[in-house]
Amino acid sequence: MSDTAAEVAKQVTGQHLRGWMCQYPTGVAVVTGVDKLGVPHGMTCTSLVSVTLSPPVLMVCLHTGAETESAVVWGRAFAVNLLKAESRSAARIFSGPVADRFAEVEWKLTDDGLPWLYGDSFALAECRLIEARPVGDHTVVLGSVERLLANPGDPLMYGRRTYATWHDLSRADPRTRKAPK
Fold first, then answer.
1. Are 58 and 125 in contact (CB under 8 A)?
2. Is residue 139 part of a domain?
3. Which of 3, 58, 153, 172 is deepest in the core (most CB within 10 A)?
């Protein structure tokens, strides 16, 4: 470590890690599933990783014991809704203690029966559960990507405990990977 680096704590706690991780901006998604009674569940998730391309596999981390985690594990399927830049309200709804989150947003079931937040997401991945493994207070969930939907749009970002946008990302030329001037 450099001589100018500040040491946060000798004993790292969850609060220390949360403070450290908020320095790393990420996209915002809502992971959704359906429970055994057919009730939709969803939660805001910034822990989303593309694990492999062959076969296509995504990983999400869900709070263990949450209704969404239970629905995903029971239904053996989940959807990842990538939120649009203007969907801060949906991100807050699905991260807070809202009684009926789905009453607050536009949504419908996909052909495979997964909740799609079509009014707030610009991209959707439908996944079949490969494995769910509890690690600490979360469950690491691996899913085989079965279908993708995508529309133009700027992603909602989260970092330093605030929502933001990254407009240049969607306008960048994918052939050159350069943002417009």
1. yes
2. yes
3. 58
The pTM of the whole model exceeds 0.90: no
Segment 34-42 mean pLDDT: 97
pLDDT over 80 at 18, yes or no: no
User: Which bin fits 76, alpha (ψ -120 to 50), beta or left (φ > 0)?
Assistant: left
Is residue 125 in a domain?
A: yes
- In angstroms, what CA-CA distances link 155 with 1, 121, 122, 169, 180? 34, 9, 8, 8, 17
Cβ within 8 Å of residue 80, ≥6 positions away:
29, 30, 31, 45, 48, 58, 60, 124, 125, 127
Q: Measured on CA atoms in the order 66, 71, 76, 79, is the torsion positive or negative?
A: negative
Q: How many domains does the chain have?
A: 1
Evaluate whether 25 touches 157 at the Cβ level (below 8 Å): yes
CA distances from 41 to 9, 32, 153 (A): 37, 6, 24
